[in-house]
Amino acid sequence: xxxxxxxxxxxxxxxxxxxxxxxxxxxxxxxxxxxxxxxxxxxxxxxxxxxxxxxxxxxxxxxxxxxxxxxxxxxxxxxxxxxxxxxxxxxxxxxxxxxxxxxxxxxxxxxxxxxxxxxxxxxxxxxxxxxxxxxxxxxxxxxxxxxxxxxxxxxxxxxxxxxxxxxxxxxxxxxxxxxxxxxxxxxxxxxxxxxxxxxxxxxxxxxxxxxxxxxxxxxxxxxxxxxxxxxxxxxxxxxxxxxxxxxxxxxxxxxxxxxxxxxxxxxxxxxxxxxxxxxxxxxxxxxxxxxxxxxx
Length: 296
Description:
Blueprint: H1 4-59, E1 77-83, H2 93-110, E2 114-120, H3 122-130, E3 135-139, H4 148-163, E4 169-177, E5 183-191, H5 195-205, H6 219-295
Parallel strand pairs: 1-2, 1-4, 2-3
Antiparallel strand pairs: 4-5
Helix pairs in contact: 1-5, 1-6, 4-6
């Protein structure tokens, strides 16, 4: 049985850990509110951007000839973009997005396709390097507070890989923020911009369109400028969703850690009380035994 000093040392250690986890929970909660506001403000903008692209694509006669919308007859190489975090201590946040990415890799290789890896966040990069994967792109340092310029850098690299035909398909894997307790792993087909996206955008935007537009310059030229901005917007939305999901996961993980630390302290306190009681009982027995010996 552990000594009283050992048990007291364990209790103090767990109490110090609980102070840290409680502070991290409070910080993550405060930052989560700001991140949630950013993603709620971003979603309507991204939806309107999609509507604008769909409307322009309908007016453009030859939009399928644009580089970012060209469907390759044979998909030989797939780019998987993993959006992870720069730090851990966030429960299953990093693990679940990496599991989905590895699942996509297995499917692609089963279909005879190669996989090019691009990753946002240090945690995802370290895992992929540990598995000895070669990275075609890596970005870090902004996973919990991304800016639009970060999305632009990622979009530029992906467009470069696609237009140069180094990859034939680009898939984005990230955690989508639903609520503080729910984050869902989402897979998004980023490039090429498929007909399904256009059809879905048509259905969503149809009630809002009641008039034809006059385009100046031609719709094809406008669409060519809009497509890179659309890709940047989709990536920025994914980064914001991932940032909010990370903070929510961290807040929940730290809350659970604080709760577990409290339960552990209660258990150690019970052990301490039992050890003290046993020690006192032993001292009483020794006193009584000594008194009996003197009486004899």
